[in-house]
Amino acid sequence: MTIGKLSKLLIKMIEQGHARKRVCVQKDTFSHPLEDDVCVILNVEKAEMVCFPMLDDDGGTKILADGRERYNTALVIRGR
Question: Residue 35's pLDDT is what?
């Protein structure tokens, strides 16, 4: 992904009211055949707003007082 493309995506998201949302990285989407040879800077392929369940302190899904799952919305950056 280029800086220009990322900038356009970010401007669009800000205009849609997402300026105060978090930015997260989905680590398991990044890989490279040369990682074992110290290749640690990897390309970003995708950045999009994603709604996902939050985890509690025990690693389970966080539950609200009324029994519903708690969700978070964030800009998620992905590789591959």
Answer: 84
